[in-house]
Amino acid sequence: MTVRLAAAGDVLAVAALERDNLGADAWSEALVGEGVTGALPTVSYLVAEVDGVVVGHAVASIVADIAELQRIAVDPGYRRHGLASELLDAVVVAARAAGADRLLLEVREDNAGALAFYAARDFVEVDRRRRYYRDGTTAIVLRRGLGRGCGARG
């Protein structure tokens, strides 16, 4: 498994992962294309590859001292093999390198698996956004400190 920056040739695979994993909340192929090709300057796309096939992706926005994990998705056939952890670790490294001292994200309140995943990786709840998703589900805002002053460890 390899985690790397996404390239233009990855747009179709990332857009397919969006549709398959995020349903009605998926980003369009056009938006994915803008992000992957650099039209959105604060946004970085990472992909996880297994045997040359893109099977996961993460999207992060980093502005000054705040990083936001906007997306993380892994093909169902490759889940529970550490790909999401590898993608998250790569986002943390990139955020720290860019000077961010905290990483934020939103997760659906009904996504127990994701909530457990992030809790095990030192994220804590800091807020809730009622009716955030298209279907009316609340988003739980999570934060992980990455540096001094934001609750990060060592």
Topology (elements, then pairings):
Layout: E1 2-5, H1 11-22, H2 29-36, E2 43-50, E3 53-63, E4 66-74, H3 83-97, E5 102-108, H4 112-119, E6 124-129, E7 139-145
Parallel strand pairs: 4-5
Antiparallel strand pairs: 1-2, 2-3, 3-4, 5-7, 6-7
Helix pairs in contact: 1-2
GO molecular function, one term: protein-N-terminal-alanine acetyltransferase activity
Family: Belongs to the acetyltransferase family. RimI subfamily.
Subcellular location: Cytoplasm
Describe this structure in words.
The protein has four helices and seven strands; from the N terminus they run E-H-H-E-E-E-H-E-H-E-E. The radius of gyration is 15 Å and the shape is globular. It has 154 residues and is an alpha+beta fold. It has a domain at 2-103: 3-Layer(aba) Sandwich (Aminopeptidase), CATH 3.40.630. The protein has a seven-stranded mixed beta sheet with strand order 1-2-3-4-5-7-6, sandwiched between helices. The model has no long low-confidence stretch (mean pLDDT 92). Strand 4 (66-74), helix 3 (83-97) and strand 5 form a beta-alpha-beta unit. The protein has helices at residues 11-22, 29-36, 83-97, 112-119; strands spanning 2-5, 43-50, 53-63, 66-74, 102-108, 124-129, 139-145. It is an enzyme of class 2 (transferase). It is found in: Cytoplasm. InterPro entries: AcTrfase_RimI/Ard1 (IPR006464), Acyl_CoA_acyltransferase (IPR016181), Bact_Acetyltransf (IPR050832), GNAT_dom (IPR000182). It catalyses: N-terminal L-alanyl-[ribosomal protein bS18] + acetyl-CoA = N-terminal N(alpha)-acetyl-L-alanyl-[ribosomal protein bS18] + CoA + H(+).
